[in-house]
Amino acid sequence: MELCTTIQAIRQARAALGTVGFVPTMGFLHEGHLSLVRQARAENDAVIVSIFVNPIQFGSAEDLSTYPRALERDVALLQQEGVACVFAPDVAELYPEGFVTQMSLGGVAAALEGTSRPGHFAGVAMVLTKLFNIIQPQRAYFGQKDAQQCAVVRRLVEDVNSPVEIITAPTWREADGLAGSSRNSRLTEEDRKRAPALYRALCHARDCVRAGEHRRTVLEAAMRSVLEAEGLTDIDYAMIVNPETFHTEGEIIPPHALALLAVRVGAVRLIDNMPLL
Amino acid sequence: MELCTTIQAIRQARAALGTVGFVPTMGFLHEGHLSLVRQARAENDAVIVSIFVNPIQFGSAEDLSTYPRALERDVALLQQEGVACVFAPDVAELYPEGFVTQMSLGGVAAALEGTSRPGHFAGVAMVLTKLFNIIQPQRAYFGQKDAQQCAVVRRLVEDVNSPVEIITAPTWREADGLAGSSRNSRLTEEDRKRAPALYRALCHARDCVRAGEHRRTVLEAAMRSVLEAEGLTDIDYAMIVNPETFHTEGEIIPPHALALLAVRVGAVRLIDNMPLL
């Protein structure tokens, strides 16, 4: 496996590969990432993984500085998974002095995370535009845990006619239902025990829908009550949207309904989601 | 030669070619375009030319609706030049319903045309991002006549790490010095006679610099006086900038000086430029 830190090096390494499946990450890898890597390996000649904590998608300097990192461990994990190249540039390699271009997205990028984290998706769109141009993969892999990001990336790729095929893989979960996230490592022991309430709240909404409840306000309140019973009251959003548009108008109509949560658990903001089928 | 109107068709046609030189145009081709095509042919296995009047780079609906078009004649010209494919999509093919992504650029895109035509370069950046993704050329060719556009495109390509090499070719001129432009076709007979005053004003500035004049205000006034002597008083700008930054501060320092004009000649807005060496 090759570890590249410059654009020139990864371009040269990529040129020797056939079809490439690309897994963009911010590092501190967990089983969710590795499940994407395994799928990418099965569907392409070779896999490239990027590890880059993209500063322009963070709204808060604090969140950026505390984002967990473990490059050596990540590289060892990826070597075991048969990855061909890891691309781990520093910030100046991707955003040198003089960098001015920005992207902006409306539509699916406007609500939820777009409201809670202004500029977040613009930063995601820019770094992916750059990484896709550098790596030129056939396919790129994203986890369903970041459901809105998946929708935004699909919109972006369609709008700019990128030749990259976007693959969304199911959310990887711990045994107690907690969705895999690098941020989980920052939970205290006690908060780790409370965190699966997100999953339980989503399952509860799904069960209510299966029992015939289609009123958005009732379902959203049902999710909040599960969270609040666990003492999780700092809720950014607990919403049900149309997964194509991320709009929230009117009564929900399964299967066109996706429940999404963003909740602060102690010092850590977690997100999760589930289709209501 | 193949004429493609859909993204699917041009992608399929492109896949059968080796290295590709790409000449993006808005059609109504003149000798300036054809000189780019010839250079592209000499430097690549095959040439693809796009013909697309990009609505999102026009500020005024009037300028867009009166932009000259002659697809049949253009296609015949390109066939004579040995072009492999022409890509001439309609507006809905590149901007279907639901399109939301925007690009914005600062730096070299902020001044001059960026001020006179808000949104112009954002529109140029978007259509080129799309066309580069669709056509995946090795090289793309632009005329020095659109000097600021060349600087913006270089900045864009660097910022998004596009693998496309940007080639700038010298401005093609009529015998009397008028720079080749599709908009020249909209000049009345009388205005056509006055239009070479832009070239003469630029030459005058260059001659003043060669005679030792380095004061920006004097040189800019000298250009204006040549234009005004021809009755051309509707001057958007007559400026000298640093060609790397497009900034205008301080005394000019050849060879880091580029004189630029945007002048309305009758109903037609013309631009031209010349390095002051």
Automatic annotation (TrEMBL), chains A, B:
Encoding gene (name): panC
Q: In UniProt terms, what function does this protein have? A: Catalyzes the condensation of pantoate with beta-alanine in an ATP-dependent reaction via a pantoyl-adenylate intermediate.
What is the official name of this protein in its record? Pantothenate synthetase
What species is given as this protein's source?
Bombella saccharophila
What InterPro entries does UniProt report for this protein, alphabetically?
Answer: Cyt_trans-like, Pantoate_ligase, Pantoate_ligase_C, Rossmann-like_a/b/a_fold
* Main location per the UniProt record: cytoplasm
An MF annotation (GO) of this entry? ligase activity
Binding residues for (R)-pantoate: Q57, Q149
On subunit structure and binding partners, the annotation says:
Homodimer.
Additional remark text? The reaction proceeds by a bi uni uni bi ping pong mechanism.
Membrane spanning stretches: none
Q: Name one Pfam family in it.
A: Pantoate_ligase
Give the protein family: Belongs to the pantothenate synthetase family.
